[in-house]
## 1
Amino acid sequence: MEEKKEPKKKLDLNRRAMPKQPPHIRRRNFYEVALGYSPEDAMAEARRCLLCKKPVCVNGCPVDINIPGFIKFIAEGDFLNAVRTLKQTNCLPAMCGRVCPQETQCEIQCNLHKKKAAVAIGRLERFVADWEATQGQVEMPEMRQPSGKKVVVVGSGPAGITVAGDLIKLGHQVTMFEALHEPGGVLTYGIPEFRLPKKIVHREMDYIRRLGVEVVTDYVVGKTKTVDQLLESYDVLFLGTGAGLPWFLEIPGENLCGVYSANEYLTRMNLMRGFQYPKSSLPIKKHRRVAVFGGGNVAMDSARTAVRLGAEEAYIIYRRSRQELPARLEEVENAEEEGVVFQFLTLPVRLIGDPDGWLKAIECLRMELGEPDASGRRRPIKIPNSEFTMPMDAVVVAIGNSPNPLIPKSTPGLELGKNGNIIVEEKTGKTSKDRVWAGGDIVTGAATVILAMGAGRIAARSIHEYLTGEKLDQPSPSVRNDEPED
């Protein structure tokens, strides 16, 4: 008797939108913009997944999440097993579901992407993580017996958290050192409250502590103790201190009052609780007209923060066109909805101050696009005699960052790249210095949260093999698919 074939699943191309605060309301508060899925919406979105026999979406995930596996559980309403599946390889799902560029990683690989209806993988990841938080008790993973080996992790950003979480589960004792007074790295000081609420970061850090990781804050490695001094007490060391040295345009007037790096601007708001204003003091002078130089996610964060601080006008000044913007599309759209003005094909060349040293205007040049450059984007070319000025009382420079030189300068034996980044073996994360690994932005320069986590997973597997001789399945090295900030 001939076996009946199952009927082919009908394609559902209705990607479920996630509710958001209306622009006219959210531009005056720091509450999260996206409000999350209901269980019904999440299940409906999950049922759109084709459960492909060869799930190419997984190829786009730097931490190798079993994407069809956790989505299938959501479709069935089994949210607990969806959480368990996610956390097999990702210890920060609530964060990744909010800030990772799924549209250029896993979702672009989805077979429904060809029909412009990729499954909302990131939104489903966020839903599951948020559902777990409502249950009152976070399930702890299986832990191996103690190995007796001691690991120190320098930096508590996404790379460091991933290394610490993986190694503590493998039985190693892990201590994490953070220079600032709150852990989380860029998750805490670099991403605004309306994109990643601090309660989410605190929740994930509490989970890491509950796993057994000791977290020590206000500890500046390179000053409090050097890497070599720490290696006297620990078996191995991982460097994940990020890229905290801001770039500037090096044009006249950048030393005027009212000129900020994006690092300073966002760190003040995040660590000095400016997002709680008026309940807390505002750590930044109120400005009426704010220009942000750059076109990446950090630039969008800065401009949207300025709007929430009451700026009458907030501009993105970008030397290329809209098509070349490296920021996530949803961040660009959110900024436009909130009233940010985009000044494309514009290059700042001089900042003009008043007699008291405060910024009062910026001088710019018009640009046009030529042939593609090394980034693959069309190169901006200056248009002669096209100078014009814009009155402005604040500028935020958001064109990129390099690693802070403190640790490289205080650590002999580390091979460095031209921008001060640490050189590592791609497949292991091992540096040129014995017993030292590194990963995240200190290696790649400013990139994404999920790429830093992928590097952390690679390093953790290599460290475990060094400490025990046991070889675990190694994740594939992540391909850089982010764009520069400028």
## 2
Amino acid sequence: MKVAFVGLGVMGYPMAGHLAAASHEVSVFNRSPQKAQRWVAQHGGRSGVTIAETVSGCEFVVLCVGNDDDVRGVVAQALPAMAEGGIIVDHTTTSAKVAREMAQQARDAGRWFVDAPVSGGEAGAVNGQLTVMAGGDEEAFARAEPVMQTYAKAVTRMGEAGTGQLTKMVNQICIAGVVQGLAEAVHFTKRAGLDPALVLQAISKGSAQSWQMENRWPTMVEGKFDFGFAVDWMRKDLGLVLDEASSNGARLASTALIDEYYAEVQAMGGSRWDTSSLVARLERD
């Protein structure tokens, strides 16, 4: 199929690569054209000078950009240029509100919009093992699902427009709570004089086990955070969560507190550290 991919960041670059490897006809756009040119040199396809040129005639337009305003800007340029009846699949983590807005704009233009945020981080994108939670029209999702499966291990339609983004918010609430618990556990382990490696061995196969424990405990112990999902990104996501909660009445006291903890990490210079850097604020002298 003719697929355009807009946004070749940490996630988008390998995701677009999986589309090319699956023999789709891929065109790419990135605000930094050098990255788009590098992608083409590695994977083939073509890069466009403008978004409209990149998506011209494409059946699918896949987005992985920064925030609500980025999505609005890309969709405004893409809708008139892409193929009639085509589908925009948005993997950006945004508000549910903007997902509903874009779905309506797409319908008005004779196109479709599927909000499809992902979980799994850079490793999931590189390995084609992302989890996708999608919202949108059932028929549009059915058409888009095989495309998303080129870089995902699980793709689930949650309901109508916006429900994918709401589900991603649930995901981020869970991650924030787990990482804060791990930070306190690592901190306690050190203060108690225990061997962190032995503690991990003892508890990681029981009910405390989690992906975060298996993958982040050793690096948290060592104070290494120069990788992974950045604190700035998590704060953006938790801001979306807390805004939504203020509208739907959900009481998220712990999430709000952890968001404040991440603000402390930012103040320590950790804006681009991995989210597991919550432990760093506990280890300060």
## 3
Amino acid sequence: MDEAKQSKSASAEAKATAEGDLDVTSKDLAEDIKTLQELHHNCMTKATDFEAEVKSRGEELKALATAKKIIKETTGGAADQSYGLDQESFLQLPEGETRAVRFVRQLAKHQKSSALAQLASRMESTMRFSTGTQADIFGKVKGLIRDMIEKLEAEAEADATKKAYCDKELAETKQKKEDKTAEIAKLSAKIGSSKSKSAKLKDEVATLQKELAALAGEQAELDKIRGEEKAAFDTNSAEMEKGLDGVKMALKVLNDYYAKADKAHNAADGASTGIIGLLEVCESDFSKGLAEMRAAEESAISTYELETKENEIEKVTKEQDVKYKTKEAAGLDKSVAELSSDKDGVETELSAVQEYLKKIEDECVAKPETYADRAGRRQAEISGLKEALTILNDETALMQTSHSVLRGAQRHF
């Protein structure tokens, strides 16, 4: 019953430890699931924004291609011809604005694209102020459109490359995080199990040592009792043997005397018979007592030797259990130390992975850039281009002065 109670207590302790580990692991799992959901939401938002940007850029490319097609279809007959009074000048269109310019400007307003608005302005300026043949002017406009297409394609390719890089890094880093987290959980479980087993073994060793101490006490008590019993037997049996020998000697003396035929007087034969009979009874009683005493001593010796042997076997068994369980507990403690060291290393790796993941998320899962942010970023580019256009307008103004008569005649044609 004691062993069953101890086993029940150890099982209850192991259960409590396991339930505690399960509770901690469950909380960690819930936190990881929450983090994963947030990350998934951010990734989906970024993907949606990226698709919208790609779609918008595609519309810009389509618009530029359409403008290019319009210019090509409407200016085919003007190639290799110069400005003349007998030709329909490209500059005769209202304020130099063509269908392509209007299309690009309307698309710029619709998409809120400063780059397209700038392109429309450059196209109009080129058509209005450039000198040379119509083929040269349209060549310049086509060049502007080609440059914008190449720019947007380069941006699209850069975005696609960045997205592929982000997808790859995010996927690999999240997988590493999951692997490291799982490895830490596995190591934690092993550490908990080893600690629990070690604690159980140590408790068992402590119990065994108490039992060995109790067993030593019992054996000491047995030795003490056996010593007292033997001392009493030695004393009592010696006295009994002495008494028996005395009775035997007295009987011999009496029997020898009354057996003589030449007595010098009338002996009390009748009385002697009673005395001899009494002595014979004493001899029988002493012999019986001595035999019982010796039998009791032999039984006590046998019982002592049997219990001593059993105690010796139990002692050797328990000492071996103490030895092996102590060794096993020490091995488990060493394993716990090694596993704890491994866990610390993995946790360090996990911290590095989480730090890198945060960096990648900040880089790749950032909120989409607003129009105000894009406008501010591109304002410097627009200002620089406007300055370039101002320089170009100044140069064109000089050209317009030299061709003012020609332009006047063209406007009245």
## 4
Amino acid sequence: MLRVEGLGHHFDGVEALAEIDLEIAEHDVVGLIGPNGSGKSTLLNMITGIYKPSAGQIRFRERIISGMVPHEIVSLGIARTFQNLRIYKRMTVADNIWAAQHSLPGVSLRDFRSGKQDDQIEQLIDVVGLGPRRDELAQTLPLADQRRLELARALVRSPDLLLLDEPAGGMTPVETQSMAALIRDVALPGRTCIIIEHKMDLISALCGRICVLNFGRKIAEGPPDDVLKHPRVLEAYLGMDGARHA
């Protein structure tokens, strides 16, 4: 489904990514891990058209998408969440989700202005556990619920490829377990997914394969049990405990 070939990116001459190869088949769930600054979010930004590659290319369903702009890539069936939340804080939960599908066929600005919401949105609000907060402003939600809202905004587009950038960032252990269950039961069925996360328990529970970046280069790839024991991965995380809990 997704193929990254020899991908590289520079910021003002500084190498952020280099020679990244990654192939993801239909319905794969791949964890993307690495220390802070290793290039994980940069890779997602390149897949979604926010950054243009300095080298290499990206193919989605055999179509070259590197160089396309974000809205074109989204229209192909790719959606994402962000490490730094991209929600409309002064809009309600329901309107946030509606706004995320504004460019889809059949979605009318007239419906938004009239307050009309379709059944899919109402069901999605309930499924992600935000039913009681449907008409609350996003800025009033606790962080865990804001992340649920961000996930719902991605899911409302019914993407084939879902990219999650630290979906449990800032959450407590209990909140993290709840988010992991939500991703497993709601987000993953029938989809292909890449998950960036520092919480190895979540990655190990959800991902069949892990790709590890360090200083912008891939240093390991394979099943979680093997990768988390890899000497270069342990070294990158400054010790076994760091590798499992960073």
